Amino acid sequence: MDRTYEQLKLIGDILAYIEDNYVEVVESKDLIYGAAKGMVSVLDPFSQFMNPDLHKDIKTETEGQFGGLGIRIGMREDWLTVITPLPGTPAFRAGIFPEDRIIKIEGESTQGISLLEAVKKLRGKPGSPVSLSVARQVEAASDKKDAKPGQSPVQEWTTHDFSLVREIIKTQSVQSRMLEDKIGYIRVIDFSAHTAEDVKEIL
């Protein structure tokens, strides 16, 4: 006998119990999303539940173009960090470097910001301006000279302000170059809606 509906009733009972007895008010949507994440997590390491906002951003990314600055970002040591600027984009032309820490967006601190919130702030209508402040790590020459063997030189940070204008960013999912003896090298960085046609064009 299929016990699916009986088991779903258990989820409903737990939801009602939490709403009635938990010490704080909890949004039912958050509880349902949490249950959905739990269900998907038992499948395999590659399955993931995405809420509507995250799904929209992932879809935008995989469609291959969006209005933005052309930087891949991630969290490093709890800081919003540039992984790499994409060649030919506003961020690349302005001189934003890998490992730069984005400390302000439009004058507002990024401390405690989530990756999803940061992406929403950085992307926008092509032609619209956005200001960034970044912290960049540099080696102090005197510290490097005075450092003892086996001791890392002391690092210091400089801050840099950028005023950028968003453009249509087409993600470059394929790179290529010619090697010797008429051998071509193609690298698929990630997959988007344009990957197949880009590979065909390069070939």
**What structural class is derived from the secondary structure elements?**
alpha+beta
- Sheet having the most strands: 4 strands, antiparallel
Ranges with pLDDT <50 over ≥5 residues?
none
- Name the shape in a single word: extended
What is the gist of this entry?
With 203 residues, this protein is of the alpha+beta class. It has helices spanning 4-21, 28-41, 52-63, 90-94, 115-122, 141-146, 195-202, and strands at residues 65-68, 71-76, 79-85, 101-105, 108-109, 129-139, 155-165, 167-170, 174-178, 184-188.
Please, could you describe this protein's structure?
By secondary structure, this protein is an alpha+beta fold. The chain has helices spanning 4-21, 28-41, 52-63, 90-94, 115-122, 141-146, 195-202; strands at 65-68, 71-76, 79-85, 101-105, 108-109, 129-139, 155-165, 167-170, 174-178, 184-188. It has a four-stranded antiparallel sheet. The longest helix is centred in the N-terminal third of the chain and has 18 residues, at 4-21.
